[in-house]
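Exercise 7b. Backbone tokens:
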């Protein structure tokens, strides 16, 4: 048996099955059906209802932020966050090439362009060193107090780093750099619910943090997202923009700007409330799985990615770094043929036709990781012993 065969049988043993093992399946072990029934009985299934308000309150509390606004999904939450950041069409937004497509798409919805900054190899998230050196090379502070890109003359309106697979990036250093250059920081924390940097929840370092509750995330409500902030004005505006910019009134329809129909429906919020109640249990279960992987892979030549000192990861998707691109391809082929679902990390955004002309800083680590990183099954295990 070589390392790949050993890995397949270890994962089958760990999940107690020889059947197909998905990458990440949702787990519904609590009040999901009860709350859904309550929603239906109340007839408040749509964007007004008690569960939406409850979820926002509970979610803000869980992440330690002052306000949360629930949206229909994480991508829309990012879109709203960027509007709130003041990003305009023709502006630039510093982000990662190594990320899920939603980050880059949301930037494009506004008509702004991404500029791709490299990541650190250990966190797989935006590198403060790379950001600092890009800004020292190309950043130009103008009299209006904002930073412009000297190569394009465009305003750098925001920075959107992403906590890859739930591993916290060096967000404190990054926040400091953004502050120095007066760049609005939005954290794409879609993957990092339950992840902390120095005991502070991810998503609370930026002026806005964004989360997703899609079917494959740590907790899910079918489709859903949220943004969090400590700024009451931003929270109010987020709620306004996500509800068609309707001026609250008992019977009249009045709107004062272009708004969006982005508010999370009560039906989804019912599911979200039930899932949030189980989050700590889900995180503990996933951590236990990660411990098993860690000890197993320490005997192989695969590097199992673990949380760094001073951070706590949610272990949403467990990740391996394989020795080479060839070995990665062989690993992907044989595990998937063997019924153990694995997948490579994303294609770099800078390699996609929509984004290939955008500026990047060379992306040395992003390219290195793109060739080697794979995800392995990471679901909650209901019968873990
Ligand atoms: C899942 C995800 C999103 C978007 O979430 P949706 O709810 O699917 O729209 C955004 N960014 C990252 C990094 C994600 O992983």
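Sequence design result:
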């Amino acid at each position: 048996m070589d390392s790949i065969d050993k890995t397949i049988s270890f994962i089958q043993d760990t999940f107690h099955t020889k059947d197909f093992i998905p990458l990440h399946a949702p787990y519904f072990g609590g009040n999901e059906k009860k709350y859904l029934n309550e929603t239906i009985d109340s007839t408040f299934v749509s964007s007004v209802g008690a569960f939406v308000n409850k979820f926002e309150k509970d979610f803000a509390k869980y992440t330690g932020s002052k306000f949360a606004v629930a949206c229909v999904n994480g991508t829309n939450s990012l879109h709203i966050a960027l509007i709130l950041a003041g990003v305009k069409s023709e502006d630039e937004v510093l982000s990662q090439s190594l990320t899920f497509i939603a980050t880059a798409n949301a930037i494009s919805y506004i008509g702004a362009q991404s500029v791709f900054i490299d990541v650190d190899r250990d966190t797989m998230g935006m590198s403060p060193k790379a950001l600092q050196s890009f800004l020292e090379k190309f950043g130009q502070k103008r009299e209006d107090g904002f930073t412009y890109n000297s190569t394009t003359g465009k305003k750098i309106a925001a920075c959107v780093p992403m906590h890859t697979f739930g591993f916290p990036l060096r967000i404190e250093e990054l926040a400091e750099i953004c502050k120095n250059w007066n760049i609005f920081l939005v954290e794409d924390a879609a993957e990092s619910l339950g992840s902390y940097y120095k005991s502070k929840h991810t998503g609370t370092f930026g002026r806005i943090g964004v989360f997703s509750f899609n079917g494959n995330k740590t907790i899910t409500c079918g489709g859903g997202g949220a943004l969090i902030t400590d700024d009451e004005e931003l929270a109010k505006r987020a709620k306004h923009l996500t509800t068609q910019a309707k001026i609250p009134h008992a019977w009249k329809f009045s709107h004062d700007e272009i708004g969006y129909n982005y508010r999370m429906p009560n039906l989804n919020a019912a599911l979200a409330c039930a899932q949030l109640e189980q989050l700590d249990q889900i995180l503990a279960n996933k951590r236990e799985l990660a411990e098993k992987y860690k000890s197993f892979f320490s005997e192989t030549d695969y590097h199992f990615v673990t949380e760094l000192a001073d951070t706590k990861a949610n272990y949403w998707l467990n990740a391996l770094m394989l020795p080479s691109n060839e070995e990665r391809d062989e690993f992907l082929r044989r595990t998937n043929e063997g019924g153990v679902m694995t997948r490579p990390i994303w294609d770099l955004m800078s390699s996609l036709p929509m984004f290939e002309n955008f500026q990047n800083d060379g992306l040395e680590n992003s390219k290195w990781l793109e060739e080697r990183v794979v995800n392995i099954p990471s679901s909650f295990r209901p019968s873990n012993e």
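Instructor comment: The chain has two domains: 3-28+279-376, 32-277. The mean pLDDT is 97.
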